[in-house]
Amino acid sequence: MNPILDTIMNAAGGGAVQQIGQRFGLSPEQTSSALDQLVPALMAGLQRNTSQEGGMSALLGALNSGGHSQYLDNPELLGQQTATEDGNSILSHILGSKDVSRAVAGQAAEQTGIGADTLKQMLPVVATMVMGGLSKHNATATAQDTSMGGGSLISSLLGQNHNGSMAETVVGLLGRFLS
Q1: How far apart are CA 35 and CA 49, in angstroms?
Q2: Helices H, strands E: what count in the chain?
Q3: What is the residue extent of each domain of the chain?
């Protein structure tokens, strides 16, 4: 399993996944299925962004100052409008375009059987969760002062992202819409 997806699934003893499922009216199985599709897609977008000049330093700055881990530590925050607002800001950086967000939701809908409209609404909240997971991993690396600290750890996590066609589709969409 993707380490960020694993962090999200286990956050607050599964409370984060339960909260997002309740917010969007999904069963635990549907919520897990949606996260299985959306998290790798967002990670692919992050991987593409960090490969561009200044991208990694911008991501590390956001992780160090954004307070994103609060969404995984306190899952009830995922039900608040602030989570959606933060997530929309994150999505604009990760995916850059509403067209890409729609395409990600559409692709995930095909894979999960969950409505694309529901997945479009979920995307910003999942984006906050992804940043929260990355933030937690970054904080752990910083606290342990490992030789992989900072950007190297995040690069490694982003490189472990591949979920076959979904991540490839997102990278292709990003290239098409942002070129």
Answers
A1: 21
A2: 10, 0
A3: 3-178
